[in-house]
Amino acid sequence: MPRKKSITSLAQQSVGIRLSSHEKICAERMNNLIISIQRLEKKVDTLSDSVSKGKGIVAVLVFLGSIFAAAIGFFNYKWNFTTKVLLLI
Is the pLDDT of residue 1 over 50? Predict the structure, then answer.
């Protein structure tokens, strides 16, 4: 009977060693995953900031473009109106 106990204890030790090495590998993998997720979160934050700035710049450019188009339209109308008046005289 003592031999069986030593075999089972040897098997249990083997399983314990395998389990502890497996836990170490899994812990390292989890740390790598956490680090990569943190890097991705930082990249997403910077990209969202860039998109927000881009939207603001586009809004400003549209506003300036509409003012510029309105000014050109006004001067074209005024120019056409004055030439018609001069031709009538």
Answer: no
| CA pair distance 66, 63, nearest whole angstrom | 5
Sign of torsion over alpha carbons 29, 30, 33, 39: negative
Q: If DSSP codes are grouped into helix, strand and coil, which group holds residue 89?
A: coil
Q: pLDDT per residue over 19-72, tens digit each?
A: 788 888 999 999 999 999 999 999 999 999 988 888 889 999 999 999 999 988
Give the burial class of 8: count Cβ atoms within 10 A of its Cβ; 0-12 exposed, 13-18 middle, 19 or more buried.
exposed
Residues 24-49 as b or e (16 or more Cβ within 10 Å = b): eeeeeeeeeeeeeeeeeeeeeeeeee
Token pair for 78 = 């005024």
